[in-house]
């Protein structure tokens, strides 16, 4: 009797997994790479006591993102907080929000997201998650940014996730 119940459950599970639109369906994704170059703004040092061991800075920056996927190529506006734990090496942690405006290449929309990461000797390493609007509505992206030199363009690697059935 137990074998019959197990067989019925196994067949039922296989049928659910094979049915389009089920909760078990997997999202499709597209991988991309790119480079993000700062074109404006940066940390705001106004009124900050730089002699303290830990320094809290506001961050307002603008970046030009060029990627292998036109759905993620555009101008990114970033705001956030930067906590510098070692001013001598410009090392610390950071987090904030971002908006990437995508126009042209057949797409009009934005990516609205959050990001967090760290600076080590002035080199940034961070991760972002964003959701699309406009032509990008219903899409989600996850990006890892990796710097190579202080205050220089950073490399981008990511995935755009599409709901199943798109």
Helix content: 10-25%
The whole-angstrom Rg is 21 Å
End-to-end separation in angstroms reads 42 Å
Write the element-wise H/E pattern from the N-terminal end onward.
Answer: HEEEEEEEE
DSSP E strands, number: 8
Question: Low-confidence segments, ≥5 residues, pLDDT <50?
Answer: 15-24
Query: Tell me, what's the shape?
Result: elongated
> Which class do the helix and strand fractions yield?
mainly beta
Biggest β-sheet: count, sense, barrel? 8 strands, antiparallel, barrel
pLDDT averaged over residues: 87
Order of neighbouring strands in the sheet with most strands:
1-2-3-4-5-6-7-8
SS strand fraction: over 45%
Individual helix count:
1
Structure characterization notes:
With 166 residues, the chain is mainly beta. 10% of the residues lie in helices and 56% in strands. It contains one helix and eight strands, in the order αββββββββ. Strands 1-2-3-4-5-6-7-8 form an eight-stranded antiparallel beta barrel. β3 and β4 (91-102) form a beta hairpin. It is elongated, with a radius of gyration of 21 Å. It starts with a helix and ends with a strand. 23% of the residues are buried. Residues 15-24 have low confidence and may be disordered.
Write a concise synopsis of the structure shown.
Helices cover 10% and strands 56% of the residues. It is mostly beta strands. It is elongated and about 50 Å long.
């Amino acid at each position: 009797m137990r074998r019959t119940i197990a067989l019925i459950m196994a067949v039922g599970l296989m049928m659910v997994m094979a049915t389009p639109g089920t909760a078990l369906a997997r999202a499709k994704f597209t991988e991309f790479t790119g480079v993000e170059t700062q074109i404006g703004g940066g940390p705001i040092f106004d009124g900050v006591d730089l002699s303290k061991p830990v320094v809290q800075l506001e961050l307002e920056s603008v970046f030009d993102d060029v990627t292998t996927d036109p759905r993620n190529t555009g101008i990114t506006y970033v705001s956030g907080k930067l906590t510098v734990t070692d001013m001598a090496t410009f090392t610390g942690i950071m987090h904030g929000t971002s908006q990437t405006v995508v126009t042209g290449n057949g797409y009009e929309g934005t990516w609205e997201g959050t990001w967090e990461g760290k600076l080590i000797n002035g080199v940034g390493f961070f991760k972002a998650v964003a959701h699309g609007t406009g032509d990008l509505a219903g899409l989600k992206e996850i990006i890892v940014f990796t710097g190579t030199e202080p205050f220089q363009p950073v490399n981008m690697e990511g995935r755009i996730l599409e709901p199943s059935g798109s």
